[in-house]
Design brief:
- By secondary structure, the protein is of the alpha+beta class.
- Helices cover about 35% and strands about 25% of the residues.
- It contains three helices and four strands.
- α1 runs antiparallel to α3 (about 75-85).
- The chain starts with a helix and ends in a 6-residue tail after the last strand.
- About 20% of the residues are buried.
């Protein structure tokens, strides 16, 4: 299930980069531990989202990709998986670099 969340979020980052066509195409994935939580940040380096999009992004059937056939269920399902199945959280925020999807899970990184 976590793989499904990762593939969906990374796919959305890829789609944003393809749509915006920035001079440098880059997606960063950062994994670290913070206060007993495993944090995963997936950042596209191409654009920012309006706050109205961020506030609705996890609603079922909300999409910004109508023209390319987006259904608006990917982030909704990812949120359900993260919150109901994994006791985690998922969110979006604009950063200096672009848009960051933040995944937070209880737990820690392996020792090695």
């Amino acid at each position: 299930e976590f793989s499904h969340v990762l593939f969906n979020v990374i796919g959305n980052a890829r789609d944003a980069i393809i749509s915006e066509n920035p001079p440098e195409r880059q997606v960063d994935i950062r994994i670290y531990k913070e206060e007993g939580q495993l944090m995963v940040h997936i950042i596209n380096h191409c654009c920012h989202l309006d706050e109205s999009v961020i506030s609705r992004a996890f609603e079922p059937y909300f999409t910004t990709k109508e023209e390319s056939g987006g259904t608006g269920i990917g982030l909704y399902i990812s949120k359900v998986i993260m919150e109901q199945r994994m006791d985690g959280k998922i969110g979006l925020k604009n950063t200096e670099e672009g848009v960051c999807c933040i995944l937070s899970l209880p737990g820690s990184l392996p020792a090695n």
